[in-house]
Amino acid sequence: MKDMNQCPICGGSNFERREVTETFEYKGQSLEYPNYVVYACGSCGEEIVDSKCLKESGRKIRDFYRQVDGLLTSDEIKQIRKFKLSLTQDDASKLIGGGPKSFCKYENCEVIQSEAVDNLLRILDLYPHTLEVLKNKHNHKPTSGKVISMIVKTKQPHLETSNVTKNAAGI
Asked: What is the pLDDT of residues 93-120, one digit of tens each?
């Protein structure tokens, strides 16, 4: 924090830098954040969080929320995108969705992904070859009303191969 000359609450000028352990709670779970920097006003006792610390702690807090909510963490998202799918952040944003620069924001803990994006990433993590469906979606032009038959094959030994009949709309 740059020199703070005057308290925004009381106008006092006596500030003390403190490092504390701050506890954040979410849905009954707790996260302790050590070395949380605040500036305390000696006149009114108000504490103002250091801007750098606020940004860093915000990232850890968002990953904490993800864990509590059962979502993939920022590191898990990066692992799936980079090593399982071999995609850049921009390509992942375009193919999987979430908006422009969404994967940059997910991986830097600026934004928490939706449950739908999280579910799709989990599917792509288990079945990375299904990414081709998303890559080819603009080349696929279904003809409504036609019935198609396809054989569904899987690499999972516990799932049986089945013959599926659908119309072109997938129903």
From this structure: 999 998 999 999 999 999 999 999 999 9
d(CA 100, CA 93): 6
Buried b (16+ CB within 10 A) or exposed e, 97-136: ebeeebbebbbebebbbeeebbebbeebbeeeeebeeeee
Tokens of 22: 């701050």
> Helix axis angle, 89-96 relative to 115-126, nearest 10°?
110
Question: How much is the pLDDT for 121?
Answer: 98
Structure tokens at 88: 């850049």
Q: How confident is the model at residue 163 (pLDDT cuts 50, 70, 90)?
A: very low
The pTM of this model reads 0.73
Paired residues of 81 in beta bridges = none
- The burial of 86, by beta-carbon neighbours within 10 Å (0-12 exposed, 13-18 middle, 19 or more buried), is given as exposed
